[in-house]
Task: inverse folding
């Protein structure tokens, strides 16, 4: 049809500064969802060491847990999971048609609550890692 | 992105003289108020004939996206800057008209009603889909950046191709399909006030396409009906005059892969709709209705 | 529009299940996290502990359900996300196939694992 | 060349209704429109549609009110047709799903409107026009009627017989705005013009930027007379920077008008000692302009409409949309400050002469809607009477063009034995086309018809082909010039002069001044050039062509206004402040005569189906 010029990325994520709450929520939810599936697959893979024997299982888990990176990644996972849950609940409300007017506020609330929970959990998560 | 001022300056000198003449003649014998108005207009024309810097009083910078597939120098998209004097009540559309009529007559954009009913001038203004005619300059940060609607093919400057949008609007059987006629001559269908109230917001759509442009899903999935078309379907599905069977049919039309299920409740559409139509809410309601209807068959 | 014989065909079913599983997951995932990071610290997890928990039938069933719903929810979510990006035609069928296989493999492996932990296998 | 049975030019209310009607008669119809149909200005109408559909009301009352409102310049057959057909057409809209406002019993609501003896204005919120337009477009989609949108019709394809009465219209020439292609459209049965209002003749109007009266100008130049063009309705309360209409409701609720001195001028200066702000539209408009001209206007331009004293509660309850309008289009918070308002052009009562079946003098050419003048509105349109005109006469034109038998029309077209010639009009300059001098084609296309003096072309295909050639040349001409005058400057000058001199306020000197100004603009137009070299979406070119049409229409309005030395309806002359029924119960007609405008008069028909309307004092 028209030989028009493609404005490319400028149209999408190059515009992030102009995104509104609902769009951020969508992007974060997507991102966290993907991380969670990814984790689910790894998680099962790691746990599968159990099939080769009790010690292998215990060693793998405790070996991983003794690594600082793993602990930090766990905090990250917590953040991701908590956000996904909270925003997921927000989305469930939206699906039920409840509180649509405050959809942006509830997104910000999800972010804040995620932050608080994660911060509060850091001691538990990092305990014994050093 | 070039920030040049268009090349009209040489020509505008000759025009200036012609104008000055006609102007002088009109003023003769005019009333006091008219004379004042003439003077003001004459000043206005003087002041803009030169570089933007000449403008007396406050002005602001208007950055406009330019592109023309067949004109040398415009094939590569760029931004042009125009200096526009600030006036009370000035809208983005006024500013564009000013820039076009004073500086560069090749500046192209759609507009008609100037009152937010024709839906011609949905533009991407300072990073948000808005109607040019409905947006006050004083509400915007400067410089005011105006671009064509994202996610639609650009035909030229600020004009985008609306065909796809129209196709989606036409795809939802956007016309009244009652099951039976009201009995009697000149009899109307009866509709309760509540029902009319329920569909009221959905009937206000002016087909501007702002919502569609703001929706990332619509951008990714070309077949997605998009918020405006779904809202159109909502308007009929919820209209009690059409009857229950028709409603079922309407829901079936919506209940398809590229129908309501594509919506990820981004709310961008609801945010940008110049007619304040609660689009996300309508889409969600249709999803629930569709699920309910499907469960009934189970 | 073509006549539709089955009522769930269009995307409404996966949409609905995505929400239903989400609602279920809220509860179990919170439980899971709590149990394995706060009640018992992850670093102290041993096969014996895991095995002990898994021997309880209620726990086992919950975990297996958790796994299946989680897998469905995750894989279906990924599929939906890809569809939203305009995936169509053969590519779509291919992706769907891969995802189904991956999902089933994951759930099967996980279930098998749970039974191992339970001591049944 | 595209070919259809019926071509409808314009996708507003009138055009859509005509297309549907022709389609229902079995014709192959296409709509050619410069805007996508839903962008048409019909969408801006707020108030409602007059239709006698309730017990206690009947079409005769509607006809009577309309005749009285027209100040006895409407033609009875037209008015009675409107009143008779409107109920059916209005209910038809409801049957197409129009979301009318509802009563408790589920029937459509009606409300009272100025000049009506029964509350018969059927409405859909404050957006009646929007819904009407969209509902009809939906029906067009349903029927699969072909729409060529963003095609600008730049001329008619009319045979070049010497006598306008012998001419036939075989199609149009249109310019595809998106690609720049000029193409012919042949109509086997008829062309229906439904191009809407002429608001852009003035610089301040409630009309859209696209309302440039193209259809009226094209028909006029093709030889169809324009009727009663001097009757232009001005609305007293429009926002100064945009012309957006502030509804009469504000004054109805108790809004007050102030001048820059803070005086409530409607009373202080005795413009309307009884009714005050609620005096009729023309009285209030004139009062406002008098204030401004006396130096008591705010910024020498407008006055204030204040509703703050009504209190926030009452305002948000009843006038909420006014708050939005003032906010969005004027940047004013009407709860905190008064709103600036001034009179603005609102509606053109005159237009292309047609009969009740929409037919014009030229065979195969029809007109309906605001661009036409069947004469329903006479010298003054009642609120809520334009929308029924669109659907009633749009449908009739569509049916007739598609071959339906609607019976013999009672309204005559063109010069008959009863007409009266005007020979004594004293104009300061020669009106009409600028003579082309040499044989060069003139940029403004003033040599539209009968240009080359050769044998008359009568073959339909050849007529369209020739018209296409002419338009191609004209557009080439315009595009080729590299320098000259910008159309926007000419348009601005024209509009300014019209607003100054041919406004609500009209006196002989002003009108003559306007004719001189128009002449000057017309001459300058010979040097107009199109700066944009692009074939893609060249709005510069389109606007340049439109400006030519505005010039012809401005002149027609002014000539009529100068000739009519009386005060009737919307037309007020300073030197002649009374209605002169002995002399002026006649329509002002203007024929182009291939570039030499000729003024003549046609008697008003006051004899209705079974009664004669006697002119009475118009007082409410
Ligand atoms: C603010 C406002 C409020 C109003 N309120 C009321 C009211 O309450 N009640 C009432 O009865 N009336 C009202 N009116 C009057 C009424 O709305 C108009 O008279 C009527 O809508 C005109 O309709 P139309 O179909 O003739 O023209 P339009 O709706 O203007 O349509 C004209 C069509 O012609 C097309 N066109 C024009 N030129 C060309 C060309 N050269 N080539 C191709 N296509 C062309 C355009 O694209 C457009 O589609 C109001 C008017 C205004 C401005
Ligand atoms: C615990 C509670 C959870 C809730 C409430 C929840 C909620 C949701 C909801 C409502 C959606 C749908 C979003 C939409 O379609 O608009 C979604 C998507 C998704 N979820 Fe979850 N979820 C949860 C847990 C999980 C888990 C454990 C995983 C990982 C296995 C996961 C992975 C995903 C993925 C991949 C998506 C798709 C994201 C996308 O759109 O790209 N979720 N979630
Ligand atoms: S729904 Fe709103 S944003 Fe979308 S087209 Fe209609 S008016 Fe424009
Ligand atoms: S922006 Fe798009 S995702 Fe849904 S809520 Fe609106 S249609
Ligand atoms: S110009 Fe009509 S919506 Fe802005």
Result:
């Amino acid at each position: 049809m028209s030989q028009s010029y493609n404005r490319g990325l400028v149209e999408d994520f190059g515009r992030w500064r102009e995104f509104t709450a609902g769009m951020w929520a969508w992007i974060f939810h997507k991102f966290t969802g993907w991380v969670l599936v990814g984790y689910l697959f790894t998680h099962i893979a790691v746990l599968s060491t159990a099939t080769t024997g009790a010690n292998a299982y215990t060693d793998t888990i405790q070996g991983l847990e003794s690594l600082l990176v793993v602990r930090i990644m766990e905090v990250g996972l917590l953040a991701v999971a908590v956000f996904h849950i909270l925003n997921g609940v927000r989305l469930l409300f939206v699906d039920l048609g409840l509180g649509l007017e405050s959809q942006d506020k509830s997104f910000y609330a999800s972010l804040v609550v995620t932050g608080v929970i994660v911060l509060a959990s850091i001691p538990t998560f990092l305990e014994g890692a050093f | 992105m070039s920030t040049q001022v268009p090349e009209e300056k040489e020509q505008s000198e000759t025009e200036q003289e012609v104008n000055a003449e006609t102007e002088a003649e009109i003023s003769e014998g005019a009333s006091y108020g008219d004379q004042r108005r003439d003077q003001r207009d004459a000043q206005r024309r003087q002041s803009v004939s030169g570089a933007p810097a000449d403008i007396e009083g406050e002005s602001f910078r208007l950055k406009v996206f330019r592109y023309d597939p067949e004109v040398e120098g415009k094939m590569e998209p760029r931004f042009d800057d125009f200096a526009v004097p600030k006036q009370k009540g000035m809208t983005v559309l006024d500013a564009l008209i000013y820039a076009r009529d004073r500086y560069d007559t090749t500046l192209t954009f759609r507009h008609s009603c100037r009152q937010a009913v024709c839906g011609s001038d949905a533009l991407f203004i300072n990073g948000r889909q808005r109607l040019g005619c409905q947006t006050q300059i004083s509400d915007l940060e400067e410089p005011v950046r105006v671009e064509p609607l994202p996610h639609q093919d650009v035909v030229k400057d600020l004009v985008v191709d609306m065909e796809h949008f129209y196709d989606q609007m036409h795809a939802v059987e956007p016309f009244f399909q009652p099951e039976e006629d009201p009995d009697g001559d000149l009899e109307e269908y009866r509709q309760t006030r509540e029902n009319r109230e329920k569909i009221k917001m959905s009937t206000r759509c002016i087909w501007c396409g702002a919502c569609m442009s703001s929706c990332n899903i619509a951008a990714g999935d070309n077949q997605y009906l998009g918020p405006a078309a779904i809202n159109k379907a909502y308007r009929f599905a919820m209209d009690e005059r059409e009857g229950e069977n028709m409603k079922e049919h309407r829901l079936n039309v919506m209940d398809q892969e590229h129908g309501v299920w594509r919506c990820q409740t981004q709310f961008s559409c609801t945010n940008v709709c110049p007619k304040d139509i609660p689009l996300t809410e309508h889409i969600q309601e249709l999803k629930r209705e569709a699920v309910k209807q499907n469960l009934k068959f189970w | 529009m073509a006549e539709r014989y089955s009522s769930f065909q269009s995307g409404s079913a996966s949409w609905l299940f995505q929400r239903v599983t989400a609602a279920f997951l809220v509860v179990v995932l919170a439980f899971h996290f709590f149990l394995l990071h706060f009640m018992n610290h992850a670093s102290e997890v041993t096969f014996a502990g895991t095995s002990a928990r898994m021997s309880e039938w209620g726990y086992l069933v919950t975990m297996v359900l958790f796994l299946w719903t989680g897998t469905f929810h995750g894989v279906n979510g990924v599929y939906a996300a890809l569809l939203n990006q305009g995936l169509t035609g053969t590519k779509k069928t291919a992706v769907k196939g891969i995802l189904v296989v991956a999902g089933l493999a994951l759930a099967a492996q996980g279930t098998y694992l749970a039974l191992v932990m339970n001591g049944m296998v | 060349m595209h070919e259809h049975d019926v071509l409808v030019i314009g996708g507003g209310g009138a055009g859509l209704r005509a297309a549907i009607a022709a389609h229902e008669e079995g014709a192959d119809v296409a709509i050619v429109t410069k805007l996508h149909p839903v962008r048409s200005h019909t969408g801006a109408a707020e108030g409602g549609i007059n239709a006698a559909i309730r017990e206690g009301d009947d079409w005769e009352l509607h006809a009577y009110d309309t005749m009285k409102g027209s100040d006895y310049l409407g033609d009875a057959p037209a008015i009675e047709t409107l009143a008779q057909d409107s109920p059916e057409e209005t209910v038809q809209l409801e049957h197409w799903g129009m979301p009318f406002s509802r009563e408790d019993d589920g029937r459509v609501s009606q409300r009272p409107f100025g000049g009506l003896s029964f509350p018969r204005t059927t409405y859909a919120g404050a957006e009646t026009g929007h819904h009407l337009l969209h509902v009809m477009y939906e029906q067009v989609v349903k029927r699969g009627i072909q729409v060529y949108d963003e095609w600008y019709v730049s001329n008619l394809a009319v045979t070049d017989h010497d006598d306008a009465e012998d001419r036939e219209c075989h199609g149009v020439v249109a310019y595809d705005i998106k690609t720049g292609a000029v193409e012919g459209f042949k109509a086997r049965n008829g062309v229906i013009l439904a191009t809407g209002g002429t608001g852009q003749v003035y610089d301040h109007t409630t009309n859209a930027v696209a309302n440039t009266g193209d259809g009226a100008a094209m028909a006029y130049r093709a030889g169809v007379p324009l009727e009663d063009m001097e009757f232009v309705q001005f609305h007293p309360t429009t926002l100064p920077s945009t012309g957006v209409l502030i509804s009469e409701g504000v004054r109805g609720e108790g809004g007050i008008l102030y001048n820059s001195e803070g005086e409530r001028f409607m009373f202080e200066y005795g413009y309307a000692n009884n009714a005050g702000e609620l005096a009729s539209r023309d009285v209030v408009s004139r009062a406002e302009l008098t204030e401004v001209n006396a130096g008591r206007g705010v910024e020498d331009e407008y006055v204030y409409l204040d509703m703050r004293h009504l209190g926030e509660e009452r305002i948000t309850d009843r006038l909420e949309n006014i708050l939005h309008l003032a906010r969005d289009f004027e940047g004013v918070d009407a709860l905190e400050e008064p709103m600036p308002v001034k009179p603005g052009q609102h509606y053109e009562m005159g237009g292309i002469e047609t009969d009740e079946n929409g037919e014009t003098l030229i065979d195969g050419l029809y007109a309906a809607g605001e661009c036409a003048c069947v004469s329903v509105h006479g010298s003054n349109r009642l609120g809520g009477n334009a929308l029924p005109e669109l659907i009633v006469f749009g449908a009739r034109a569509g049916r007739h063009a598609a071959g339906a038998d609607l019976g013999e029309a009672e309204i005559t077209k063109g010069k008959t034995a009863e007409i009266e010639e005007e020979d004594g009009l004293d104009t300061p300059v020669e009106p009409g086309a600028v003579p082309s001098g040499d044989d060069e084609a003139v940029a403004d296309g003033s040599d539209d018809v009968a240009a080359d003096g050769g044998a008359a072309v009568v073959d339909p295909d050849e007529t369209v082909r020739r018209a296409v050639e002419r338009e191609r040349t004209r557009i080439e001409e315009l595009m080729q010039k590299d320098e000259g005058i910008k159309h926007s400057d000419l348009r601005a000058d024209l509009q300014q002069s019209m607003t100054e001199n041919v406004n609500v306020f009209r006196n002989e000197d002003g009108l003559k001044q306007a004719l001189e100004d128009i002449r000057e603009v017309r001459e300058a137009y010979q040097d107009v050039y199109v700066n944009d070299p692009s074939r893609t979406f060249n709005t510069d070119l389109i606007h340049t062509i439109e400006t030519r049409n505005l010039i012809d229409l401005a002149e027609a309005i002014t000539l009529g206004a100068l000739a009519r030395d009386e005060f009737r309806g919307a037309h007020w002359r300073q030197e002649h402040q009374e209605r002169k029924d002995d002399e002026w119960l006649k329509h002002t007609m203007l024929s182009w005569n291939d570039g030499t405008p000729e003024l003549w008069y046609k008697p008003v028909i006051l004899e209705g189906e079974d009664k004669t309307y006697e002119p009475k004092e118009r007082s409410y």
